[in-house]
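Sat 14:20. Reprocessing the chain from the morning session after the first attempt stalled halfway. Input below, unchanged.
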Amino acid sequence: METAVTDYLAYLARDQGRSANTVASYRRDLKRARAFFKQQGVDDWEAVDQYMVLNLVASQRQAGRSTATINRLLSVLRQFYHYLIRHHQVQVNPMELVDNEQPSARKQPVILTEEEVHRLLTTPAAGDRLANRDYALMSLMAATGMRVSEVVNLQLADLHLDIKMVRLGNGSKRERLVPVSTAAVAALNHYLTAVRPQLAANGEQAVFVNAHGHSLSRQGIWKNLKGRVTAAGITKAVTPQTLRYSFAVHLLRNGADSRLLQEMLGYSEMRMLQPYLKMSVKELSLNYQQHQPWK
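Finished this time. Tokens:
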């Protein structure tokens, strides 16, 4: 089973041009599935049937995995079995008889208040080099709504701080320039001039680097954010996505055009913020009634 997975991942990277992050994600999901099947006494992908896959789904549900996480695992398995069928490694595709999990009611995203964001940013403002790096990183995320993957992939050439812009999605169809706040530019400039030269390995082009001088990982960002949240005394379940949504809600509440945010965040994530869009309209109406001069 392991050899088939290794060959498939190499195929994704070599022939499909999938990114390192995507390949790593596929590896984690396939490793989880393989471990479960082996626990059931199955050591050949050919021997897996739809009932075993349904048992895998049930185990993931019992482990508290979200519907989205389970469906991603099923998607990875579907693509993997298509590969196995095309390369004549299995005769039957068990995924053809397995449907996706139906999503439950959409949960409202966790949003930080502006005061909480301020606490989060000021907590790591002083200290060692890594603390200053985290301050610059979180200032950038809070000011732009960047995805954690975009932060990981951000290169020095993508920074245009002289015009307060960063380039995201370099070389992809989603390439775009995103404005950066004055405070975030100041934090970045300090990090780039006083901190990063002491951390970065020779030739490293990633903006944010770890203690070993190489690109900071997604897991590293999550871990550091969790520590800063605790230090700031914030009890909400904060993730990098929380900073992304909080950025959007704060702009909406301060009068930003929702179409601009849709361009920056994407349509699917604007749907998550629909309750806040409605709230902004209500707040606007109330403000108008209170302050319009022709009562």
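Residues 278-289, 291-295 have pLDDT under 50 and may be disordered.
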